[in-house]
Amino acid sequence: MLRFSRIIFNSKVVNNLKMNLSEDEWKVKLSPEQFHVLRQKGTERAGTGQYNKHSEEGVYNCAGCETPLYTSKSKFNSGCGWPAFFEAIPGALTIFEDRSHGMVRTEICCKNCGGHLGHVFKGEGYSTPTDERHCVNSIKVEQPRQQKQQQQKQQQQQQQQCDVIVIVASTN
Ligand SMILES: [Zn+2]
């Protein structure tokens, strides 16, 4: 019954998405890993995100649709083993109440494509401006445009490799 309610809830949101692909189309666009996390709200092994300790300046985009979600300015070291941000780029996220697994959590999804990103935890006592921890499942990093242009002049063949972070939202 819970699962049924959840499907109805999500289908309403899907209809309002700017990027609204079918599940088959997503399977073509995404890797199996990305599809599992973004479209099936899956989780990955803890500690597999390569950007956990990534501290270079840049913008973190949705792996599904390239929408900018977070900047490096809001990234902080939470010590939880996964990349954490204290705030998202305004308007980038859709927020849900997630009552799965016997818990009440705040789920975050990409507003543009509906991809599952992770959860937000509040009031944990981090010394950040918001005291929020956005624990994100699947994003990729891109350098700021200005920086990129400079780099392209220097090394025309260099192309920023965008890898996917797949991490598990902490339940602690
Ligand atoms: Zn997206």
From TrEMBL:
Reactions performed catalytically: L-methionyl-[protein] + [thioredoxin]-disulfide + H2O = L-methionyl-(R)-S-oxide-[protein] + [thioredoxin]-dithiol
InterPro entries: Met_Sox_Rdtase_MsrB (IPR028427), Met_Sox_Rdtase_MsrB_dom (IPR002579), Mss4-like_sf (IPR011057)
Family recorded in the similarity comment: Belongs to the MsrB Met sulfoxide reductase family.
Name of the molecule in the record: Peptide-methionine (R)-S-oxide reductase
Cofactors (names): Zn(2+)
Record-level GO BP terms: protein repair; response to oxidative stress
Classification via SUPFAM superfamilies: Mss4-like
Organism, as annotated: Heterostelium pallidum (strain ATCC 26659 / Pp 5 / PN500) (Cellular slime mold)
